[in-house]
Amino acid sequence: MPWWLASDVLAQASKSKPPSDEQRYEACMTMARRDANTAFDQALTWQDQGGGAPARHCAAVALVALKQYKQGAERLEQLAQELKNPEQELLRVGLLAQAGQAWLLLGDTARANAVQSAALKLVPQDPELWIDRGQTLATAKNYKEAVADFDQAIKLDPERADAFLFRASARRFLENFAGARQDVDRALKLRPTDPDALVERGIIKRLTGDDAGAREDWLAVIKAHPDSPAALAAQSNLEKMDVKQ
Fold first, then answer.
1. How far apart are CA 8 and CA 11, in angstroms?
2. Which entry of 97, 159, 177, 236 is 20 to 30 Å from 206 by CA?
3. What is the extent of the structural domain holding 114?
4. Nearest to 43 by CA among 34, 10, 52, 78
């Protein structure tokens, strides 16, 4: 069952509503991933019919999928603010996390940081939230603060390859190449074929004078994941290196 429907509020509401409400919510959220326009229209219709918070949540998620990040984020924040009971804390955190991601997609790092910080105050033991805010800080070029957030995520879950990868990138921008290389190697130990980690390791190798090693990593990405964004990044780095040479 989706996390949103696990709330006590919606559980109580379902007593006076037909059992199909849960299925309707699941269908709307699935549609939001496949056809956001249709999902948004369905959510509005459902909301007019008394769909309540689940319908509003689906509409907000559909707006984010439609790249209407500001409208979607504002709706998600509004829903989070309406959850006042202590037993609704995790639901509120989930909404704040989604709102933070939407603000980041919009490019509003200050708003994303504020929302993510509010979520962290509620659940500081969640590594995902530290990673989210770390990415926001890195996007805003606050690399030292980003490293600190990734540190917290790794302390909470030492098996998070993505946290090591993000910290490697932040350390690289801080010109801590030794630390960056340690982190990216750890990420690749956890996920040996991760294309983004291979691209990052290639960049670190290039910056530390290992052009042959960088080329090897980038060519491996292009061969294994030819149509991926990582392959595009690898190809771009190869071209820059060859032009400079």
1. 5
2. 159
3. 1-123
4. 52
